[in-house]
Specification:
Elements lengths: L8 E5 L4 H12 L3 E6 L2 H13 L3 E6 L5 H15 L4 E4 L16 H26 L6 E6 L13 H21 L4 E8 L14 H11 L8 H12 L10 E4 L6
Parallel strand pairs: 1-2, 1-4, 2-3, 4-5, 5-6, 6-7
């Protein structure tokens, strides 16, 4: 591993599991101070234990991304503990009513996805940019969108796709709005990844592997580490001139 993020502070929302946890661990392995955020403390504590076991420095903060005050407090906590906020990864998201056609999606599920997937990213961006634009070195933000959205549609996920398409648009627009502030904003759009969200109800790992062999040109799900590598690239100085990009990591599904 390199030390691309040595001395820098990275914040990751939805860091209690899946891609968020993988991204947090990847930043820690490359020298970052990592602030992990989520709604429930227990999964965050598990992420903290993994980071500390790897020798990283971390801070866990319980926060609800649908609440602006929580996000402002999250950013303030990161700055108070580590002195700055250099990178933010807005990963928190949910998939509700999966497999249901749009006309059958409950209003409650629709509003929950809007609140977390869209409003949560908007409020996080506002809190993060407000801090980063005050820093001499600015900062970098990576939003987690999805290959289901602007890149492709899948029956039974239309409502979810609409919210993730909104993340892609928020990313590109915010990137133009704030690059003059020294804040680079990009997105990663994962395809099927080795997380709980990629399973169909009752499906085993063997069943998912068989399904992926026919559904994805690569022939398998992406690993969490592969998605994290894309996030770290966009957050690093290696991507200093990359602004407003939505990087698809999906094994060729949308090629």
């Amino acid at each position: 591993m390199t030390n691309r993020f040595s001395g820098r502070t990275a914040l990751v929302t939805g860091a209690g599991s899946g891609i968020g946890r993988g991204v947090a661990l990847a930043f820690a392995r490359e020298g970052a101070n990592v602030v992990v955020a989520g709604r429930r403390r227990e999964p965050l504590d598990e992420t903290v234990a993994l980071i500390e076991r790897a020798g990283g420095k971390t801070l866990a903060v319980t926060a609800d991304v649908t609440r602006a005050d929580d996000l402002r407090g999250l950013v303030a906590g990161a700055v108070d503990r580590f002195g700055a906020l250099d990178v933010a990864v807005n990963n928190a998201g949910v998939l509700e009513a999966g497999g249901q056609p749009l006309a059958d999606v409950p209003e409650e599920a629709w509003r929950r996805m809007l609140d977390i997937n869209v409003t949560g990213v908007l409020l996080a961006l506002q809190a993060e940019v407000a801090q980063m634009r005050t820093q001499p070195g600015g900062g970098a933000v990576v939003n987690i969108a999805s290959r289901i959205g602007v890149h492709s549609r899948v029956p039974g996920t239309t409502a979810y796709a609409a919210t993730k398409a909104a993340v892609s648009v928020l990313t590109r627009g915010a990137a133009l709005d704030h690059i003059a502030d020294g804040v680079r904003i990009n997105a990663v759009s994962p395809g099927p990844t080795a997380t709980a969200m990629s399973f169909k109800p009752g499906e085993t790992e063997a069943g998912r592997a068989e399904r992926m062999r026919g559904a994805v040109p690569l022939g398998r799900v992406c690993t969490v580490e592969e998605v994290a590598a894309a996030v770290l690239y966009l957050a690093s100085d290696d991507a200093a001139s990359v602004v407003g990009t939505d990087l698809v990591v999906d094994g060729g599904s949308t090629a």
